[in-house]
């Protein structure tokens, strides 16, 4: 087993209370492994303390990228406080802790 951080990187984005996580392999040859191993259910379970809604997986084979849209994930939406991670940016690092 290895952590996703060993073979991929991730970016996070947000829109209201929706978190978007990308998963991009460092080596495009690892893309098929990611598609095989990293399901929406696995991501939902891994981030269950943060993501209260659904997780939808999108596979973009031409780009060798996966994207996960996570609803009800940002405690109601974005804040102006720098003391909180309302945008969910740190969750890209949490995703990379997932072992496959």
Side by side, the strands of the main sheet go: 1-2-4-3
Our measurement of the CA-to-CA distance between the termini, rounded to an integer number of angstroms, reads 5 Å
Look up the CATH topology.
Answer: Alpha-Beta Plaits
Described by strand count, sense and barrel closure, the largest sheet is: 4 strands, antiparallel
The SSE order reads EEHHEEH
> Helical amount among residues, as a percent range?
10-25%
Quick one: how many beta strands? Answer: 4
Indicate the overall shape: globular
What would you call the structural class?
Answer: alpha+beta
Low-confidence stretches: none
Mean of residue pLDDT values: 87
Number of folding domains?
Answer: 1
Q: In CATH terms, what is the architecture?
A: 2-Layer Sandwich
Radius of gyration: 13 Å
CATH level 1 class label = Alpha Beta
Strand content: 25-35%
Count, helices: 3
What's the helix and strand layout?
Layout: E1 8-15, E2 18-25, H1 31-37, H2 40-46, E3 55-60, E4 65-70, H3 91-96
Antiparallel strand pairs: 1-2, 2-4, 3-4
Description of the structure:
- With 100 residues, the chain is of the alpha+beta class.
- It contains three helices and four strands; from the N terminus they run E-E-H-H-E-E-H.
- It has one domain (4-76, 85-96): Alpha-Beta Plaits (2-Layer Sandwich), CATH 3.30.70.
- It has helices at 31-37, 40-46, 91-96, and strands at residues 8-15, 18-25, 55-60, 65-70.
- A hairpin with a 4-residue loop joins strand 3 (55-60) and strand 4 (65-70).
- The longest helix has 7 residues, at 31-37.
- The chain is globular, with a radius of gyration of 13 Å.
